[in-house]
TrEMBL record:
It comes from the Eukaryota. Residues 246-333 form the Beta-ketoacyl-[acyl-carrier-protein] synthase III C-terminal domain. It comes from Gredgaria maugeana. Belongs to the thiolase-like superfamily. FabH family. It is found in: Plastid, Chloroplast. Its EC number is 2.3.1.180. The last Arg residue of the ACP-binding site is essential for the weak association between ACP/AcpP and FabH. This is Beta-ketoacyl-[acyl-carrier-protein] synthase III.
Amino acid sequence: MKSLMIQGAKIIATGSAIPSSSFSNHEMSEVVNTSDEWIFTRTGIKERRLLQGNDQSVVDLAVLASKKALNQVAMDPCQIDLIILATSSPHDLFGSASKVQSQIGAFNAVAFDLTAACSGFVLSLVTASQFLQTGVYRNILVVGADALSKWVDWSDRSTCILFGDAAGAAILQSCSFTHNAILSFQLNTDGNYSKYLSMAYEQDISPHPKLNIYQGYFKYISMNGKEVYKFAVFQVPLSILKCLNSLNMSVEEIDWLVLHQANYRILTAIAEKLSISKNKIISNLHKYGNTSAASIPLVLDEAIQNKKISHNDIVAIAGFGAGLTWGTIIVRW
Ligand code: ACO
């Protein structure tokens, strides 16, 4: 791949937002036939946050996470040139990024949604870094936000126990070539396996009475958990290795693994395959479950607030999910 990089890009701030209502495994066992023991041992999840009631949407979470990131660096929202909202559960199928733009007052920013399920934040970071490294824009807000509680089948115990709602944001800024922090990326898609994880469009069985047009609706999340599990554990380590190879870096140089928070067993299996110590895995999925596009910025923000990640640390960020899509970014913090 030929790089047209003329300047660098770095992450200068992060922020995150979660709904106020937590929902424990015990409470889940009152909705479907499951138990805290089953959920915790199979996934590592103890509780998740859900948008309950009528008053908050995925856009509200995205706005709050964005404002926190802006406040962290006291940035005027009018300095943002581009907003990319990674979401697969927008409030409007035409896109929700423009609502984030107006609600945070980023009136100079172009805004669009990017749909790539749990890989959405990684793909959005890479997209943003391209605009920065080619000198097109200076400040970009990348938000990962999902409310999959709106899209799970609450009678399907194999999926509804996994997901939570959240948003996370990062502000990327261009910088001199020598200070570039987004060192490399590696992205993949394999549509042959899209059937393993989908929120598919379902067509009505009969057309409009006067037109030969079939309309329809979107179905709940459907997932083949075992296949997704095998795919993640096989492909993600390869992606991380390819990304490191492109930089002539070794696995030992990774200080932190920030993976999509799908299932703690997946995270440890990936670390084991790479011979990376479990202590380098950053995880908070026991508190939030799988928050799809929000999971990486949510855990990243927490690690930064807790001062776990320090200046110059090498962070391997990898996302994976529906598509199937997966990819890695190596960042020097
Ligand atoms: N509570 C109790 N029992 C359950 C539950 C539950 N919530 N769910 C399933 N079971 C039962 C099944 O019915 C099955 O029973 P059986 O043996 O009598 O048939 C048994 O438990 C085992 O079920 P499996 O599906 O084989 O369980 P598995 O060990 O594979 O764990 C899980 C399921 C946790 C979903 C796992 O496959 C997984 O984590 N897969 C990856 C999911 C993932 O990461 N998705 C990413 C989504 S990213 C995105 O893009 C949105």
